[in-house]
């Protein structure tokens, strides 16, 4: 790249730093031979794919750091993960990769005696599959005490904060983190695994959020209504009813795979179709979506398109909202087999949009900053 563009962050920006909690880890990916379900006592051949797998906090924060130019100067947007990895080669490599992206890694602890979170993913020839993930890893050791020890990050002096809580660390720790972030007026964003949605509701976590990003299955667990990509209106209306009655200030993003995503509040909705792309892998696309939205909001891009009607009708060829930026990034990510697209940055995202007949609004283009001293950093392999 001849330039390293990013979204401008300055004294007028709504947010100047992000603190996040969640899992940091890695994994491997096998393509199994044979369609039948893996048996209890079976040994199965599988092709180990050249795929780099990452956990949710790393993915979300990676894209925020890249789009906002984190770590380029003392005045840059600051991205700080609070996490634990093992005191092992995988943990050290992940910390180095995050540092290379511009994150502040001093709050990532390397824990002796506990392994870095690790997942073995497997896929059958028909595309279905599953994974086996470390049940007791360093990530699961993250505690309220660790959040309290980083309390200085959640009390910024004169600078509003984005607080992000994502899976693969204990739900109760994320709840405590969001409680602390709520006290200083932070923008609070989260995602949940499907099995966590109801427990999170019972803990009252959704009342501590401004933004939640869910996939179709997770959205169904929240709303109690089936989601049909062919006929989404009943789901959207049921979601709005829930928000009006219980969470009037919450914005819900529901990703719908190759269809795109829906942004839903108690009063407004916006459907954002995803551009067509040759898919290498969809793994990590939902986390990329959240990272793009958070980066856009931090830079001052409105969540909804300014010209969208209450029902979400608008010109879909112009990117003028944070949710569209997130959908664009999620689609761009799908061009890579890795859960983090190793070359994705604002420059490649602009090229990706232009190649599909999409253009950014003048208001967003005005946020593009060119740093000629920097190139889109090459991935640490």
Structure in words:
It is a single chain. The protein is α/β, with parallel strands linked by helices and 381 residues long. The chain has 11 helices and 18 strands. The chain has a 9-stranded mixed β-sheet with strand order 7-6-2-10-11-12-13-14-15, sandwiched between helices. Strand 11, helix 5 and strand 12 form a beta-alpha-beta unit. The longest helix is centred in the middle third of the chain and has 14 residues.
Q: Any chance you could write out the topology, listing elements then pairs?
A:
Elements (H helix, E strand, L loop, with lengths): L3 E4 L9 E5 L3 E8 L13 E3 L4 E2 L1 H13 L9 E9 L2 H12 L7 E4 L5 E7 L5 E5 L10 H6 L11 E5 L5 H12 L4 E5 L5 H7 L7 E4 L1 H8 L9 H14 L4 E5 L4 E5 L4 E5 L11 H14 L19 E2 L2 H12 L12 H9 L4 E2 L1 H4 L2 E4 L10
Helix pairs in contact: 1-8, 8-9
Beta-strand segment tally: 18
Please indicate the percent range of residues in DSSP E strands (runs of 2 or more). Answer: 15-25%
Count of helices?
Answer: 11
What gap, in angstroms, lies between the N and C termini? Answer: 19 Å
Class based on secondary structure composition and strand pairing: alpha/beta
* Integer average pLDDT: 91
How does the overall form come out from the CA principal axes? globular
Q: H/E element string?
A: EEEEEHEHEEEHEHEHEHHEEEHEHHEHE
Taking all Cα atoms into account, the compactness measure Rg is 20 Å
Strand order of the largest sheet: 7-6-2-10-11-12-13-14-15
Biggest pleated sheet: 9 strands, mixed
- Assembly state: single chain
Taking pLDDT < 50 over at least 5 consecutive residues as the criterion, the unreliable ranges are none
Fraction in helix:
25-40%
């Amino acid at each position: 790249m001849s330039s390293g563009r990013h979204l401008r962050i300055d004294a007028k920006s709504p947010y100047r730093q992000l603190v996040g909690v969640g899992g940091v880890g890695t994994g491997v990916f096998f393509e199994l031979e044979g369609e039948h379900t893996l048996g209890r006592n079976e040994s199965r051949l599988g092709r180990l794919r050249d795929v780099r797998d990452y956990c949710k906090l790393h993915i979300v924060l990676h894209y925020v750091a890249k789009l906002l130019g984190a770590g380029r100067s003392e005045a840059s947007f600051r991205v700080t993960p609070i996490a634990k990895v093992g005191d092992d080669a995988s943990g050290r490599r992940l910390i180095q990769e995050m540092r290379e992206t511009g994150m502040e890694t001093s709050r990532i602890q390397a824990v002796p005696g506990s392994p870095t979170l690790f997942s073995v993913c497997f896929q059958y020839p028909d595309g279905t599959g599953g994974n086996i993930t470390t049940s007791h890893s360093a990530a699961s050791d993250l505690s309220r005490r660790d959040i309290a020890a980083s309390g200085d990050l959640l009390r910024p002096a004169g600078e509003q904060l984005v607080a992000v809580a994502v899976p693969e660390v204990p739900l109760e720790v994320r709840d405590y983190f969001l409680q602390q972030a709520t006290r200083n007026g932070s923008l609070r964003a989260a995602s949940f695994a499907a099995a966590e949605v109801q427990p999170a509701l019972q803990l009252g976590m959704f009342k501590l959020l401004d933004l939640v990003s869910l996939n179709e299955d997770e959205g169904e667990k929240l709303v109690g209504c089936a989601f049909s990509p062919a006929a989404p209106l009943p789901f959207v209306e049921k979601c709005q009813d829930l928000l009006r009655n219980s969470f009037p200030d919450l914005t819900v993003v529901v990703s719908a795979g190759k269809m795109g995503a829906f942004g839903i509040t108690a009063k407004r909705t916006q459907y954002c179709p995803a551009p067509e792309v040759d898919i290498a892998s969809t793994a990590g696309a939902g986390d990329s979506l959240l990272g793009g939205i958070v980066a856009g909001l931090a830079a001052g891009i409105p969540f909804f398109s300014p010209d969208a009607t209450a029902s979400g009708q608008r010109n879909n060829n112009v990117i003028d909202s944070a949710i569209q930026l997130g959908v664009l990034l999620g689609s761009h990510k799908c061009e890579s087999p890795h859960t983090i697209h190793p070359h994705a940055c604002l420059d490649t995202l602009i090229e990706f949009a232009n190649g599909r007949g999409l253009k950014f609004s003048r208001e967003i283009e005005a946020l593009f900053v060119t740093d000629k001293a920097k190139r889109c950093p090459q991935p640490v392999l």
